[in-house]
Amino acid sequence: MDYTALVDTMRRLALEAGDVIMEIYNSDDFDVKVKSDESPVTAADEAADALISAGLRAAFPDVMLVTEEQAASHTQSGDTFLIVDPLDGTKEFIHRRGDFTVNIALVENGVPTRGVVYAPARNRLFYTTADGQSVEETGPFDKAAPGATSPISVADSDNAALMVVASKSHRDQATDDYINKYAVKDMKSAGSSLKFCLVATGEADIYPRLGRTMEWDTAAGHAVLAGAGGEVVRFDDLTPLRYGKDTYANPFFIAHAPGVTLQES
């Protein structure tokens, strides 16, 4: 894999998809449909998916592609593939809360190694460079060439005063019970894969997720966090979260800075 070409392509497609999403987001109204799993989908999900899928297939025709909006892709199996969530945080999008992201990642041998997370309404763009290190680009987000970037790194966490980030839309008692096992300095809520990025930048120390997610929800954020020195482990046995699983469904997991001493579930 030509990682330079891959990162350039993923970055450009994420920015282009962001433009399409924001055009719909800023319109007076948009239709919301419900998929077979009861999750919402909008014209923005579908338009962004079409754009990203076409771009990836043109650039990397020999690499397996899995995308949330194309059910036929979910029947494929492999441990190396591109994986896309064209609009993560659809509920945030529908309620115009801004915390939604475009997510594109490469998984190799079950591990997300390169990824881009773009939050167009927040003007934040995170990605792994060709060498696997993670950066945040500070704009002005020229599609032809990357602008100024800053390396990002997880916090040197102090277990006596942790910053926790949790889901805006999926917070529950089980999550709160687990968080209460830690000495928490403060908490923040965020939508979509931004939670991984907040741990990656050191703005948070730990993100526990005790709820349903799919691999396309997490792969890009996982890659960004890993490239910043962070880890994502299964909640049940604290082993690394792997990709290419049957049906692409994730178990509960914990994303964290390595300095955090994880509590037993």
Tag the structure with descriptive keywords.
single chain, 265 residues, alpha+beta, Fructose-1,6-Bisphosphatase, Chain A, domain 1, D-Maltodextrin-Binding Protein, domain 2, 2 domains, three-stranded antiparallel β-sheet, 6 helices, globular, membrane, EC 3.1.3.7
Task: Describe what you observe in this structure.
- This protein has 265 residues and is an alpha+beta fold.
- It folds into two domains: 3-151, Fructose-1,6-Bisphosphatase, subunit A, domain 1 (Fructose-1,6-Bisphosphatase, Chain A, domain 1); 162-256, D-Maltodextrin-Binding Protein, domain 2.
- The chain contains six helices and 16 strands.
- The protein has helices at 3-25, 43-59, 90-94, 173-179, 194-200, 215-227; strands at residues 32-34, 40-42, 65-67, 81-88, 101-108, 111-119, 124-128, 134-137, 149-151, 162-167, 184-190, 206-209, 213-214, 231-234, 249-250, 253-256.
- The chain has a seven-stranded mixed beta sheet with strand order 3-4-5-6-7-8-9, with helices on both faces. The chain has a three-stranded antiparallel beta sheet with strand order 12-16-14, sandwiched between helices.
- α1 (3-25) runs antiparallel to α2 (43-59) and α5 (194-200) packs parallel to α6 (215-227).
- The longest helix has 23 residues, at 3-25.
- It is globular, with a radius of gyration of 17 Å.
- The mean pLDDT is 93.
